[in-house]
Amino acid sequence: MRALLVEDDPDVGEHVSRALCEAGFLVDWARDGHEAWFKGDVENYDVGVLDLGLPLLDGLSVLRRWRSAGRTFPVLILSARGDWTEKVEGIETGADDYLSKPFEMGELVARMRAIVRRAAGLSAPLLSCGSLVLDTHRMTATFGSRPIRLSPLEFRFFVYLAHHPGRPVSAAELAEHLYGESDAGDTNAIEALVLRLRRKLGASLIETRRGFGYLLTGMAE
């Protein structure tokens, strides 16, 4: 899952970014409100973490601009301001959750995973696709009831497709969400990844819809 972190405090931003990467997120970090608004408007994210007290443009204004522009990715507000009226304003502006500073990193990660699942219509951290079961909490996988070892990239690939059941996902979209702003990701890299996974787990798990993209077989639509 590709996440946009909006935080101007370098220490907090570094700690959150590291924790999210360890939890399997691909993180882009914006350090002021203008950069955040631009990134959220032109890039496709699966989730955002938004501080309110930002330079150049405050967090609520950033969120209003995203929602007015039709950007619907789930957003968790992260703020040192704990007044309940501000929490209400954040939710009514379009936030999906609100966490006050100071906070426990484990809670932040759990809340982010939860709002991503809700956005996809999923309720549990276990994602099943035929013989493949992904545990997005422990970041482990089983295939045919036996543990299998997946690289972080392979795990993110399956999780992304599992969050879009029944919809073919193009190689370009997969590259954007698996590699982000990195130059390493292109459609050829995705094709090579699919080929490797089919060799590892069998050809029937990942279906190709010619001209549309890839989807996992055995998932409820």
UniProtKB/TrEMBL annotation:
Keyword Secreted in record: no
InterPro entries: CheY-like_superfamily (IPR011006), OmpR/PhoB-type_DNA-bd (IPR001867), Sig_transdc_resp-reg_C-effctor (IPR016032), Sig_transdc_resp-reg_receiver (IPR001789), WalR-like (IPR039420), WH-like_DNA-bd_sf (IPR036388)
Domain OmpR/PhoB-type: 124-218
4-aspartylphosphate: residues bearing it: 51
Domain Response regulatory as annotated: residue spans: 2-116
Pfam families tied to this protein: Response_reg, Trans_reg_C
Record key words, sorted: DNA-binding, Phosphoprotein
Residue ranges: DNA binding: 124-218
Phosphoprotein in keyword set: yes
Protein name (Swiss-Prot/TrEMBL): Response regulator transcription factor
Source organism: Polaromonas jejuensis
